[in-house]
Amino acid sequence: MKNLLEQNISKHISLEDDEMEEFCNLFQYKSIKKKSFLLRKDEVCKFEGFVVKGLFRVYHIDQDGVEQILYFAFENWWITDIDSFTNDKPSQLFIEAIEDSEVLLISKKDKEFAYVNLPKIEKLFRVMTQKTHVALQRRMIDNLSKTAEIRYLEFSEKYPQLIQRLSNLQIAAYLGITNVFLSNIRKKISLKK
Hints:
Blueprint: H1 2-12, H2 17-24, E1 28-32, E2 37-39, E3 48-53, E4 55-61, E5 67-74, E6 78-79, H3 82-87, E7 94-97, E8 101-106, H4 108-117, H5 120-145, H6 148-158, H7 160-163, H8 168-175, H9 179-192
Antiparallel strand pairs: 1-8, 2-7, 3-6, 3-8, 4-5, 4-7
Helix pairs in contact: 8-9
Pfam family, one: cNMP_binding
InterPro entries: cNMP-bd_dom, cNMP-bd_dom_sf, RmlC-like_jellyroll
Protein name: Crp/Fnr family transcriptional regulator
């Protein structure tokens, strides 16, 4: 289980074996059943998590009751509400398991401990934060400049493994469109083939 975490860390930074072991031992294992919440709106997020198995959706519900999915987190992805975690403020987000899932969680206290005692860890989180900012910036630009059909096609191409694991409603909420509009897009695409 921690082997996947070690592989993920090694993609970003190099750690000595003892550093890797010490850092990975700061994480706590948690099993989450399908449709259970890792975080609910108005709770303070007390963790950053690494998904070992399963699938989560991170979403917000707007004032009209419409669900807006920020992102999906599946195996080998990190998950948190960074605003709530960093600023100790109530979350505006829900983090819900779409499938039975397993995560490794690190607390703020243990993360700070790692920053002080394992200086390379600060670089790890800096690199990951930069990559997250790039991905969010690209998603914002795509949402502003690309049609829903193009966004759907690119999502399908980039995450083919997710298409089978997600409902049409979840994909539509991620793309910012209605389920009916997504069905129309899929019909249009199938007619082109």
